[in-house]
Amino acid sequence: MLGITGSIAAYKSCLIIRQLIKKGAEVQVVITPAGKEFITPITLSALTSKPVISEFFAQRDGTWHSHVDLGLWADAMLIAPATASTIGKMANGVADNMLITTYLSMKAPVFIAPAMDLDMYAHPSTQQNLKTLQSYGNHIIEPGTGFLASKLEGKGRMEEPENIVARLEQFFAQQESASLSSSMNGKKVLITAGPTYEKIDPVRFIGNYSSGKMGFALANECAARGAQVELVCGPVSSSMQVTHPNIHRTNVESAREMYEACKALYPSMNSAILCAAVADYAPEHTAEQKIKRTADDMVIRLKPNPDIAASLGQMKQQGQTLVGFALETNDEESNAQAKLKKKNFDFIVLNSLKDEGAGFRTDTNKVTIITAETKKDYPLKSKEEVAKDIVDELERL
Ligand code: PMT
User: Fold this and answer.
1) Residue nearest to atom 21 of ligand 1 (CA)
2) Which residue out of 325, 332, 349, 350 has the highest number of ligand 1 atoms within 8 Å of its CB and is therefore the one to mutate?
3) Is 260 in the pocket of ligand 1 (CB under 6 A)?
4) pLDDT band at 173, cuts 50/70/90?
5) Around Cβ 68, how many Cβ atoms within 10 Å?
6) 280 lines ligand 1 (CB under 6 A)
7) Does the CB atom of residue 255 touch ligand 1 within 6 A?
8) 3 state DSSP class of 342
9) Ligand 1 centre and the CA of 148: distance in Å?
10) Ligand 1 mean position to 276 CA, how many Å?
11) Which long-range contacts link 387-392 to residues 24+ away (Cβ below 8 Å)?
């Protein structure tokens, strides 16, 4: 349930709706009369594919919107932007519009993102009302850094839409892991993700196409099942973010850095899932200056990188599990079997670049899970679904 009130930040509600829907949410807008001065119900209903609620009576035929039903329907209510006036009415039960009556009937957790002029925000009555709402168990999403930055200009600013959505996501993730009773509860899992970059000179590197999507999906799945996740991550796009509070992320660049991080972490872990695409070789020397073009051929001598998987396989103690991946282009199964043994994995997840929609960068993957005794083929699925299959297998172990 998204409540919109009469603030200039109302246009940002569109971005909030878009991001929520992209993440799979169903969004119902309830808007105050002042809110409609800033953004039209037509825009909002086009974005949510639902009629926007603003009046008690939808038509003149006596049918009316039930704020009680709305209060039961929602999994969360977000009021963004929330003006000083709405915050005051909410704190004091002044139920003179549809948004406030819906708020008063709300059974789900409520999040409030204030947006107003700095002086109004700083006023003792606003601060008191926010405290009151907090004492009722509502979650206040304080204006973010934008607010502080604009302090000098004397204008308040609502927290950015992506941060508001991240806050909701974090809340739901916490709820989910609390409700999931799983053998992963409290278990510590190390996950590697993404590519590694091996420096040739200050501007060039040897890398690969791994996006980190598969590894991040595994981290989210383990965290959702209650595990404490150490995510060691190579250089991935800045859009790759984790929000689950159970995930601690360490960013590295090269295979050697990933190796050092993993070696230090693995002894205190219950399991590790090695999903990163680690460069097997690195330039023997990294040039200090940018290498200049000449007419001659160029040879870069490479030296082998540490094999993280094989090292952890050697360190593995009784009760610890180690899961690896195999990315193959040919002789898939026999190569995967060989890696399973050589690296002392408990099972290996084979994906082949021969399968369309599998491997690097895609949102999907098609895997075979191979243990010393068994082999199971899975169909093409989203990486989130594949992560569930892999973590199910880990839980079985
Ligand atoms: O990141 P995405 O775009 O979502 O793509 C996902 C993926 C294709 C990268 C992933 O599904 C995958 O297959 N990861 C492993 C890629 C790989 O490097 O495979 P490999 O067969 O070369 O290595 C075998 C295993 O040893 C892997 O678990 C690898 O992490 C590990 N390894 C390899 C080399 C090395 N020096 N150290 C290692 O630990």
Assistant:
1) 326
2) 325
3) no
4) confident
5) 14
6) yes
7) yes
8) helix
9) 43
10) 5
11) 387/214, 387/217, 387/218, 387/220, 387/221, 388/221, 390/218, 390/221, 390/273, 390/323, 390/349, 391/184, 391/218, 391/221, 391/222, 391/225
Please state the three-class secondary structure of 218-251 as a single string. HHHHHHHCCCEEEEEECCCCCCCCCCCCCEEEEE
Query: For position 155, what pLDDT does the model report?
Result: 44
295-321 pLDDT, tens digit per residue, is 999 999 999 999 999 999 999 999 999
Q: What is the pTM of this model?
A: 0.66
Q: Other CB atoms closer than 10 Å to residue 397's CB: what's the count?
A: 11
| Mutational pocket test of ligand 1: of 236, 278, 353, the residue with most ligand atoms within 8 Å of the beta carbon | 278
Position 144 scores a pLDDT of 62
Residue 344 annotated to the active site: no
The 10s digit of each residue's pLDDT in 327-367 is 999 999 999 999 999 999 999 999 999 999 999 999 999 99
d(CA 192, CA 2): 37
Which residue among 275, 366, 380, 382 is best mutated to probe the pocket of ligand 1, counting the most ligand atoms within 8 A of its Cβ? 275
